[in-house]
Write a structure and sequence with these properties.
Layout: H1 2-24, H2 27-44, H3 48-65, H4 72-98, H5 100-108, H6 115-129, H7 132-147, H8 153-172, H9 183-206, H10 222-229, H11 236-269, H12 271-294, H13 322-356, H14 359-394, H15 400-428, H16 431-434, H17 442-460, H18 462-474, H19 478-504, H20 512-552
Helix pairs in contact: 1-2, 1-8, 1-9, 1-14, 2-5, 2-6, 2-13, 2-14, 3-4, 3-7, 3-13, 3-14, 4-6, 4-7, 6-9, 7-9, 8-9, 10-11, 13-19, 13-20, 14-15, 14-17, 14-18, 15-17, 15-18, 15-20, 17-20, 18-20, 19-20
């Protein structure tokens, strides 16, 4: 459940931006967010190999480091991931800043867009490019915490970032200054929140909480003991008070002596009963001690202070070792192709809306996408959680216990996917009531509400899709995912562009619902393919286990 909060932080920042821009800056500035956010957020997914690699590497290292002091392999993986993320983020930010204009033109697709909308989108992209190094490091630190099965630490840090973003939006978006108002103000708020988040993250990882006794002055009792037991004149008064206390205590004990003696005689007469009671008490204590040893209390792991004394702010700019780069290399092509294939549908959708459906549709699409991405983390958390737990199981030797554990894990994640799907369906039902909090334009509100029924179909299976994808990533079935998303990269945009051609030719009935119908078909196909692939892998695992057992027999 805390992983939902971790996944929700990024989309929540965009949702806050969308709402504040729509309410404080108007429809044109809100429309500019549609192509601008498509460029920045989808480009950021190109570095997702860092996050997938970090989660898997740290989870594997954590499994082997639990018995080792200092957890050296986990520490090395975490530090290397942060350092590599800083350099990859700088590269991505430089590309976005330099190529903002051609990237936006590629998304928009024609020159018919309002110059005001295009100028606002340009400012947004270039400002957001400044925060890409921080965004990449945040993602890796977050992924490392999840790999260590600590989902509370990133939640605390990113919740603070969301607060900073909200305050920045309130300060900047409503300004009339062209460099800090409107969409540009939303971009500045996001960048400041990202910088605050990575600063807090590094401080969190490098500083342990202070002890409750830290800073309390020590009490030196040596002198008092020497005065009490020695013959110095300085301790004479102390010795007299001590002797007086002993005399008082002895007097009270003499007074109680007769009462105690009679009680002892009574207890002795009932000695057999006393012996029985003592024996039962002893047995109960022994049983309790044995139960406590058999069921040791598990303490939840926290990454706070994990890197204390081994990493600091200056270490961020150090270039990662070649060994770390080699460990990340296998994830680059499969995960990147997976992400490109995944976002191709979203990019194509943004292109169709921006190039053929007009400014009002662009504003409505931005609201829909912001709400969509705020609901996705409810199920996306299952994917990261699977990547955190599954590697430690799948990397064990082939055995009956391993196949049984994988089957139980698969069943549990599919059950959770079904439950989360129900939660998301309930949330989608409230979209018609929420849309008025994002814009004052009634036409935009009507467009948003028209897409809600299609979102019901999308989210009905989204939980199962994310659970299955996490299971595949946890078992490192990267080649299958890479091939499938490479196919989606071509197929989904093809059908999206057919909607554009129909709109440009003047066909009736082409609107936002047309592009979301294509996306719904894509989602249903993913559901069938992902669940089928997980089932096939499980059967292979059980077959290999059965063959091994037959060989032993």
């Amino acid at each position: 459940m805390p992983a939902i909060g971790v996944w929700l932080c990024g989309p929540l920042l965009s949702l806050i931006d969308t709402s504040t821009v729509g309410l404080l800056a108007g429809t044109a500035q809100q429309a500019a967010l549609n192509p601008a956010v498509a460029v920045t957020d989808y480009a950021a997914l190109l570095v997702a190999f860092l996050f997938t690699g970090t989660t898997n590497m740290v989870a594997s290292a954590q499994a082997t480091d639990k018995s080792l002091p200092g957890r050296p392999r986990t520490t090395k993986s975490l530090i290397g991931a942060i350092q590599l993320s800083a350099y990859v983020g700088v590269g991505l930010g430089a590309i976005l800043f330099a190529f903002a204009r051609p990237l936006l033109k590629a998304i928009i697709g024609n020159d018919g867009i309002s110059p005001t909308v295009f100028a606002a989108a340009m400012k947004y992209v270039r400002i957001r490019a400044l925060g890409m190094p921080a965004a990449a490091m945040i993602g890796s630190a977050q992924a490392a915490c999840l790999g260590m099965q600590d989902i509370r630490s990133p939640l605390y840090v990113l919740a603070a970032a969301a607060l900073v973003n909200f305050i920045g939006d309130m300060l900047f978006v409503g300004s009339s200054h062209p460099l800090i108002g409107g969409a540009a103000g939303a971009a500045w708020a996001t960048v400041f929140s990202q910088m605050a988040a990575i600063s807090l993250f590094i401080h969190w990882l490098c500083n342990k909480p202070r002890s409750q006794y830290e800073g309390v002055p020590a009490v030196n009792v040596s002198k008092a003991i020497m005065e009490l037991t020695g013959k110095s004149s300085e301790g004479e008064s102390r010795r007299e008070r001590f002797c007086y206390t002993l005399r008082c205590f002895r007097t009270k004990m003499d007074t109680k002596c007769d009462e105690v003696s009679s009680e002892v005689q009574r207890v002795v007469r009932g000695g057999s009963r006393l012996t029985s009671i003592l024996q039962r008490s002893k047995n109960a204590k022994t049983t309790t001690a044995a139960d406590n040893e058999a069921k040791p209390k598990e303490e939840s792991f926290s990454a706070r202070g994990f890197l204390e004394g081994r990493f600091g702010g200056r270490d961020v700019i150090k270039f990662p070792s070649r060994e770390i780069i080699k460990e990340f290399a296998p994830y680059v092509i499969p995960v990147t192709s997976t992400q490109v294939g995944r976002v191709s549908g979203y990019v194509a959708m943004s292109h169709v809306v921006s190039s053929s459906l007009g400014t009002t549709s662009m504003a409505a699409q931005q609201i829909i996408v912001s709400l969509f991405y705020c609901l996705c983390p409810i199920a996306d958390s299952l994917s990261l959680t699977a990547q955190s737990f599954v590697p430690s199981i799948s990397e064990k030797k082939i055995s009956k216990e391993r196949s049984k554990a994988l089957r139980q894990t698969m069943t549990n994640f599919f059950k959770a996917g079904g439950v989360f799907g129900g939660v998301m369906l309930g949330a989608v039902a409230f979209i018609p009531f929420l849309s008025r909090f994002f814009t004052t334009d009634p036409v935009v509100v009507a467009m948003v509400n028209s897409v809600a029924p299609l979102l019901l179909g999308v989210f009905a299976v989204h939980g199962m899709v994310c659970a299955a994808e996490g299971l595949l990533l946890g078992q490192k079935d990267l080649s299958f995912l890479g091939r499938m998303y490479a196919g989606y990269f071509a197929i989904v945009p093809y059908f999206m562009l057919r909607v554009k051609r129909a709109a440009m030719s003047g066909a009736s009935g082409i609107n936002l619902t047309s592009v979301w119908k294509v996306f719904l078909s894509y989602q249903l196909f993913r559901f069938v393919a992902w669940v089928g692939r997980v089932t096939i892998l499980q059967r292979r695992t059980e077959r290999a286990s059965a063959e091994l057992m037959e060989g032993f027999e």
